Amino acid sequence: MTLEHRTTHPRITPLEVEHWDPKLRDQMLPKRPPEMGDAEAPVFNIFKTLANHPKLAGRFARWGDQILFRSSLSPRDRELAILRTGWLCRATYEWHHHVAIARDHAGMTEADIDLARAGPVAASTAADDVLLRAVDELVGDHFITDTTWAALATRLDQQQLMELVFTVGNYTMVSMALNSFGVQLEEGYRP
């Protein structure tokens, strides 16, 4: 099964960087974190779209930086949660960008990516299945059940439990925005 874009064109036209508010450029165009290499980060369509609302975009960038680059979750757990969230939200843009991040920066394999797509095995207590079940519960019911919470708490500390909830919430919101705004995949990310 593949994800299809819900719109074939942007509903909000991406704004090229040269037209951005200078303050927004400073907030949203920093160098990549050291773990992602020395090159300047490409400016993706999500940021070009958000640039149409500079105040929101600047605040979103700071929040997103915390969730993506400063999380206490392991990179693999974080990306497994983000991928599952993107899949459940049918967010083509989110899915394809985070497949690349999962492969290139979180050490995930094709089997891991397939696991995020397939979801948890029923009644399994394997760590990945428990994490995926938590994502499914958050996206579907906005609540992690007591059983899933207890299983998660055997391997995640309190801050990681909090960050998991905020990560899934953040990427659910991002998926809503990407889908509704019609943010289109860049050429290098096409399936």
Description:
By secondary structure, the protein is an all-alpha fold. The protein has 2 domains: 15-70, no CATH class; 73-181, AhpD-like, CATH 1.20.1290. The chain has 9 helices and no strands. It has helices at residues 22-28, 45-50, 54-69, 75-88, 92-105, 110-118, 127-141, 146-152, 158-181. The model has no long low-confidence stretch (mean pLDDT 91).
Topology, please?
Blueprint: H1 22-28, H2 45-50, H3 54-69, H4 75-88, H5 92-105, H6 110-118, H7 127-141, H8 146-152, H9 158-181
Helix pairs in contact: 1-3, 4-5, 4-6, 4-7, 4-9, 7-8
Q: SS-based structural class?
A: mainly alpha
End-to-end C-alpha gap: 12 Å
Major beta-sheet overview: none
The overall pLDDT average reads: 91
Whole-number count of domains:
2
Number of strands: 0
β-strand amount: under 5%
Low-confidence stretches: none
What would CATH call the class of the largest domain? Answer: Mainly Alpha
Looking at the overall shape, the CATH architecture of the largest domain is Up-down Bundle
**SSE pattern, N- to C-terminal:** HHHHHHHHH
CATH superfamily of the largest domain: AhpD-like
Q: Helix proportion of residues, in percent?
A: 55-70%
CATH topology of the largest domain: the name is: AhpD-like
Number of helices: 9
Shape estimate = globular
Indicate the radius of gyration in whole angstroms: 17 Å
Short description:
This protein has helices at 22-28, 45-50, 54-69, 75-88, 92-105, 110-118, 127-141, 146-152, 158-181.
What would the keywords be for this entry?
AhpD-like, 9 helices, 2 domains, 191 residues, mainly alpha, 59% helix, 0% strand
